[in-house]
Amino acid sequence: MTANPRSDTIAVFGAGVMGCGITALALGRGVDVVLVDVSDEVLRAAEAEIAQQLRHGRFMGAFPGSRATGTLTTTLSGEAAADATAVIEAITEDSSLKARMLAEVSGVVAPGTTLITNTSGIPIDELAKSVRRPAELAGVHFMNPAYLIEMVEVIRGPRTAEDTVAAVFSLLGRLGKKAVVVHDAPGFVTSRLLHPMINEAARIVAEGTASVESVDRLMQGCLGHPTGPLRTADLIGLDNLADALRLLAERTGNPAFAPCDLLREKVRHGDLGRKTGRGFYDYEGVLS
To answer: Keywords on this record (predicted)?
Structure first.
């Protein structure tokens, strides 16, 4: 497989939480990005969010001070990805939607273009069935916020080619990331461990054993968790977390992974975490 020589731009599909974070990461590292979504309104909001993340990333020292910021192009047309050297799909964690998007993208880009799905737990080989060249597809599980968390999980599907993995590592190196390769499985490693822990933390709160704050303080102080599982859940997005847990329960056959009642209740009420101003914690007046 040879790299596409026509461009040094990556295309990101999906201007939601993860799409914005990945775009900010790339721009801050001097990489040009074409950001694709289906809504002008979403893209306008994404531009403001990405600008804020770039400011925050610079303040936190996440981006090289000597490197010029990459150029951002937003568009409603997937055809704009045709000349990209790599494509990162970052739409919602829905296997059918991801499969449909990847099928469309693989029909647009040239052979040799690295295809990356940003998924927290959907098996890569399941998605590879939809693309024209399965050997060119790999998974990368970026953590939120993508521009601050240094480590990523790279998932190699059964049909992922060695040169695709090499291309992914080359791109991640440009983005300043460290990576660990894992084999394909539902939930991979990080989600298989983290999401059930968050689910159990929510059950503990629902049962009245401890408050949200107490659970997080204990996990931070006793077990070294950087933020606590429930504050982490708010950052992930409780809707995203509930979807990922449902998928994990379905694909492993383990009903214990299904989202607990408290988590489902918060999603029903629209309390999805930081992005809506309220989740396990209240962020009203805190978010800019």
So the answer is: Oxidoreductase
pLDDT for res 286: 57
Q: Is 183 a catalytic residue?
A: no
In a domain, 150, yes or no: yes
Residue given tokens 């040169």 in the structure block: 163
Q: Is residue 283 part of a domain?
A: no
Q: Report pLDDT for 285.
A: 65
Q: Can you tell me which residue has the tokens 């329960």?
A: 249
CATH of the domain at 217: 1.10.1040.10
- Tens of pLDDT, residue by residue over 137-148, are 999 999 989 999
- Condensed to tens digits (0 to 9), the pLDDT of residues 44-93 reads 999 999 999 999 999 999 998 878 999 999 999 999 999 999 999 999 88
**231 within 8 A of 216, measured Cβ to Cβ:** yes
208: left (phi over 0), alpha (psi -120 to 50) or beta: left
Q: Which residues of the chain have pLDDT under 50?
A: 1-6, 287-288
Q: Which of 56, 141, 225, 269 is catalytic?
A: 141
Per-residue b or e along 195-233, where b marks 16 or more CB atoms closer than 10 Å to that residue's CB: bbebbebbebbeeeeeebeebbeebeeeeebeebbbbbb
Neighbouring CB atoms inside 10 A of 163's CB total 15
- Residue 88 domain-assigned (yes or no): yes
Whole-number Cα distances in Å, 138 to 93, 113, 173, 265: 16, 11, 16, 34
Place of tokens 């693309």: 131
Q: Which pTM value belongs to this model? A: 0.89
CA nearest neighbour of 110 among 139, 84, 128, 138: 84
